[in-house]
Each structure stands twice: as C-alpha cells, then as structure tokens.
Amino acid sequence: MTEIGLAKDQLDTPALWVDLDLLERNIESLAALFKSAAVHWRPHVKGIKIPAIAHRLIAAGAIGITCAKLGEAEVMAAAGIRDILIANQIVGVQKITRLAHLCRQAQVKVAVDDPDNIAELGRAARDKGVEIGILVEVNTGMNRAGVLPGRPTVELSKRVHETAGLRYLGLMAWEGHTVALDDPAVKRQEIEKAVQLLAETALLCREEGLPVSIVSGGGSGTYKITPFLEGVTEIQAGGAIFCDMTYRGWGVETEPCLFVRSTVISRPTPGRLIFDAGFKALPAWLGRAPKPVGLDHVKSVRMSAEHGIVTLEAPDPAIKVGAAFDFLVGYTDMTLFLHDHLYGVRAGLVETIWPVVGRGKLR
After folding, report:
1. Residue 338: inside a domain, yes or no?
2. Of 362, 361, 353, whose CA–CA distance to 17 is shortest?
3. What was the pLDDT predicted at 2?
4. DSSP letter string, 15-52
5. How far apart are CA 180 and CA 233, in angstroms?
6. How many domains does the chain have?
7. For 236, phi and psi rounded to 5 degrees?
8. What angle do CA 289, 291, 295 make, to 5 degrees?
9. Which distant-in-sequence residues (6+ apart) come within 8 Å of 81 by Cβ?
10. With bands split at pLDDT 50, 70 and 90, how would you rate the model's confidence at 261?
11. Which among 232, 248, 89, 94 is positioned nearest to 170, based on CA atoms?
C-alpha cells in the first residue's frame, strides 16, 4: 500500500480513517468495564467488518464476536476467528448448508425463533455430521424478531434441546427500543424492564432442566447499564469502539475516533461549502448528521449522492476550494461498509491500511 507512512493530510479524498491511539483506548476501556461487570464481551462487528480489528478485540479480552450475517461470519472464520455468534435467523437450504460447513471451521451459534427452522437446522447438522449452537431469540420489547418471553420461549427452547444435531446454549435479546430515549431515568427503567424479561425467562428455562449457559444482549446504546443487570452473561456492544455522532446522542462515552476526510470542491456562495463526500461515502439519513471538525458556525450538513453540502450560519469567504476537513462520522453502521479501506492513523501518519473485507456480505 503506497499510502503507508504518508501524512493523513496527503490522503486522496474521500478517505475513511481511524485514530489508532483513540481506538486502542476505547477498546481497553470497554474491556475493563465489562470485566468489572463480570460479564463476557462478544462485540458485534456488523459496523466493523474488519477481521484485524476483531482480533484486537479478542486480544483485549473478548471471548468471540457477534455477526449480523452468515457472509460476515464466513469472512471472520476465514481470518481465524473461532467463536462466532450470528445474531440472526439462518433460513433456506443454501444458507443452512453453508452454515453447516462453517461449523467445521469455527464454533458457530445462531439465533432461532421458529420451529420449522429448528427442524431444518437439525437435519442439515445431522447430514453434515456437525453440531450447530443455538440461542433462542426473545422479543423483550423491540418487536422485531424473537419469540415472546416466558412459556413460549421455554417451549421453543425444549424443541431445540430435543433436536439432534443442535446444541442448545441459551437465549439472546436486544433492548434496542431503548437506545434513543432521551430521559436517562426512563431509559434505565426501560432497559431494566427488558433485561428482567430476558433474565426471568432464562430462569424458567433452567427450572425446566434446560442447560442455559448463555444469556446474550446489550449493545453500544445500552453498554453502561445492561452489563450490570442480573442474569446477563455476555454483552454484544461493538460500535462503541469507534463512537460517532449518533452513539454520542445515545449516551456513549468512548472517544469518537472514526472520520471521513473530504475536500472542498466548490464555493458557490460565501455561506455554502461543497465537499467531495456525498452519501456514497458519508451518509446522513439515519441518526445524527456527520460533524465537520474545525469548521465553526455550521448551520446544516446534508448529502446528495456525490456532494456534501455544508451551510454556514454566516458567510466565510476565507475557506478556499481545495481545503480539506475531517468529518466525525454520523453513524458508523451505515458508513464504514461503503469504503474499501480504513486507514489507521497515529500521530498524523498512516500506520496501517485495513481492507474492509466484510463489506457487501449481505447473505
């Protein structure tokens, strides 16, 4: 890579880069937090996509990783990650066959919430001579996937436990409906309510003789509360290693360290700047908008396909075409996967370049 050793300011734009010193501090602080809570850390990599960073997380104390898609898990297993939770349902002959083969390469666990899917997974595992780890997904209020807590979860868990080829491991849930609540007291109350449903359901399963070894949940938007609640054994928070404008709005207190560098390509008026990073490099349609660093009196930031449009509160003719600014990413999960590479920068110099090998893995 010819950019190794270059000054960050010499990178062609748009360029996605991370401050390595801040990233390493964030990883260390999260690992220490979860250790203090006596829970395991299984960071979600849906917004990370880079095996080299996943290895850093494991070196810091994570027990494995969480993926959103089978394709992501295949990439991570090929890079030597050996303990993987796919926090999603794997459905259909093609995907289930791939999953069964992947179980020869790593310890893989998947989420289920449907009896027919459980039967299909069991048949594939028996046919391929492997064992597939299973977590029953519980709907604790997000109203996305998942079976209802209480007896419905117990009955589905029994079905998993009785299905040859499957190894019942426990439960998972995501209290994602709480992350954007503004009132801290209300947010804590709703998180506690959701986690209590999960923990009580895990207890019911154990009372029925089911071997619940994993109760998985928690994300970056709830990482300061969920790990310390009774009954949770592992936390899936991953995006907090980068932080961003949206995570900051959700109360994440790690240091923002992920940026897109962009160049001013037009000054049509003294009150408007046009950048070369549009929503194909720096989207702004979900969560909070990206924030230009070192640019004062910004009124708005909006994106079209190839252009970033920054409107100022007052005219500023001093900024010239060709000037470059770093934008603090608006939301990592919808930004990082758009790029081919992530530049690791330390003290202003490019130290490493990581291919974003998990991008495009939608299946």
Report:
1. yes
2. 353
3. 87
4. EEEEEHHHHHHHHHHHHHHHHHTT-EE--B-TTT--HH
5. 24
6. 2
7. -100, 5
8. 145
9. 51, 54, 55, 58, 64, 65, 106
10. very high
11. 232
Instruction: Tell me the three state secondary structure of residue 267.
Output: strand
Q: How far apart are CA 46 and CA 305, in angstroms?
A: 23
Domain-located, residue 360: no
- HEC string for 65-77: EEECCHHHHHHHH
Clarify whether residues 224 and 285 are in a common domain. Answer: no
Model pTM greater than 0.70? yes
Maximum Cα interatomic distance, the chain, rounded to a whole number of Å: 72
Query: Are both 161 and 62 inside the same structural domain?
Result: yes
Residues belonging to the chain = 363
Tell me which residue range forms the domain holding 284: 258-355
Residue 123's CATH number: 3.20.20.10
Q: Is residue 14 part of a domain?
A: no
Residues 216 and 272 in one domain: no
198-214 pLDDT tens trace: 999 999 999 999 999 99
Q: Are 310 and 290 in contact (CB under 8 A)?
A: no
Average pLDDT for the chain? 97
d(CA 26, CA 151): 39
Per-residue pLDDT tens digits for 329-347: 999 999 999 999 999 999 9
Q: Where on the phi/psi map is residue 130: left (φ > 0), alpha (ψ -120 to 50), or beta?
A: beta
Q: Same domain for 139 and 265?
A: no
pLDDT at 1 over 70: no
Q: How far is CA 135 from CA 169, 170, 225, 279, 346, in A?
A: 6, 5, 22, 36, 40
CA distance linking residue 37 with residue 233, whole number of Å: 10
C-alpha to C-alpha distance for 189 and 90, rounded to whole angstroms: 32
Closest CA to 158 of 198, 110, 197, 201: 201
Question: Measured between alpha carbons, how far is 95 from 182 in angstroms, rounded to an integer?
Answer: 39
**Domain assignment present for 10:** no
Residue 52 tokens read as: 């080299």
Q: Residue type for 207, please?
A: E
User: What mean pLDDT is predicted for residues 262-290?
Assistant: 96
Share of the chain above pLDDT 70, in %: 100
Assess whether 69 and 210 both reside in one domain: yes
Contact 226, 268 (CB under 8 A): no
Nearest to 100 by CA among 79, 116, 86: 86
